[in-house]
Amino acid sequence: MKMMFKKLLPVAITGAFMLGATAANAQITKYGKDLTDEERAQISAMVPGAPEPKDDEFVHIPPTMEDLEASDLHPKMKEAIRRGHDLFVNTQQLRGKNVFNNMNCASCHIGEGRLPYAGPVWPAAVDLPAYRGKNGHVNSLEERIVGCFTYSMNGLPPEYGSDDMLALSLYHQWLATGVPMFPKDKLYGRGFPRLADPEQAPDAVRGKAAYQANCAICHGEDGAGKKEGDKVIFPALWGDDSYNWGAGIARVYTLASFTRHNMPLGQPNSLSIQDAWDIAQYVNTKERPQDPRYTGDIKETREMYLDTFHKHSMYGTEFEGKILGDHDNVGHKDFLKPEILRSRDFTGGKKAE
Ligand code: HEC
Ligand code: HEC
């Protein structure tokens, strides 16, 4: 009986039928203006305190892993999506091969990459290929994933077209089920949306006090987080086990938004805007592994990527008498930049070298 319903009704409705309890997690795919009161309540329970969807924003709450099991996708598809999900939430299984710090993808893309205001990953699946200012060419979905491996995981990305890469990109695409390709509308809660400017310029000294009061209990006074054996309990915020200087979250505004909307874990949107900026300033003036794009000269590297990136980071600036990032430390890996990072052009080889 249930199977028949599923074939006849759109996914958004069947989500609510399944297992009874999943109503709180049901898929939603529609404009803000078309949301029902129940759907609005569902969203605000998922991201307490976050801005509500605006009428003209496109809202997508992806299917869950329970939806996957209940769906009529081919068992081989389910197997591949499960693998992608498992890699996303437990990326540490690739430690020493592709990952060289304490991160899982889900350390930053909270809630399995499904939550608004927590860097939901499905937008990349419908928005790419697209031009990215960070590397100045048209990027595919796989390449976007390569980017987070290179910088956020301080790692060596899996090969293009490999089983792991296919499983991960399929997981992203499956999360985007029902969203049209190349949407023109604003996507609700995409990325870590820019916070309002703070009243006072972000300050690392105030940030340190707020960090100690709100964050140190889990991430440690020394920012190193916590591990039990091989299991990462709390990921590292700075040092060799953390993201490197080229990671998106090394930009102060990105970390401020992440922090306000997602931390302290379980109390999103509880910090003041000022505290979020101050803490981000504090954490992002701490040392971390070298930016993989480092040329050997900190001033030159900052200059090269200033407009597209480093004007928002503290890299190459002076703090407490030292130039941040002025070192050869690459963390736990034994290379600086993975070969897989390359430029592209679409002239068919006609471009003069
Ligand atoms: C240290 C934090 C961090 C980790 C770990 C991390 N990411 Fe990201 N990721 C980011 C940030 C920051 C962005 C940019 C968000 C923005 O633009 O506001 C991002 C963006 C993305 C996007 C693009 C989303 C969009 O809206 O287009 C994808 C896809 C993605 N990450 C996948 C991954 C995958 C896969 C992994 C694990 C291999 C991973 N990320 C690990 C921080 C992280
Ligand atoms: C109750 C424990 C707890 C507290 C308190 C907490 N965090 Fe976290 N934080 C976590 C956990 C757990 C994760 C990984 C999330 C996941 O895997 O689902 C995380 C992830 C992060 C990440 C992304 C991954 C990384 O290591 O860079 C940042 C950044 C972060 N927290 C910053 C903060 C800041 C800033 C504060 C204080 C405002 C804070 N956290 C307070 C538990 C906590």
UniProtKB/TrEMBL annotation:
Keyword Hydrolase among record annotations: no
Keywords per UniProt: Heme, Iron, Metal-binding, Signal
TM region positions: none
Domain Cytochrome c: 91-176, 202-287
Residues annotated as signal peptide: 1-26
Matching Pfam families: Cytochrome_CBB3 (PF13442), SoxA-TsdA_cyt-c (PF21342)
Protein name (Swiss-Prot/TrEMBL): C-type cytochrome
Source species taxonomy: Bacteria, Pseudomonadati, Pseudomonadota, Betaproteobacteria, Burkholderiales
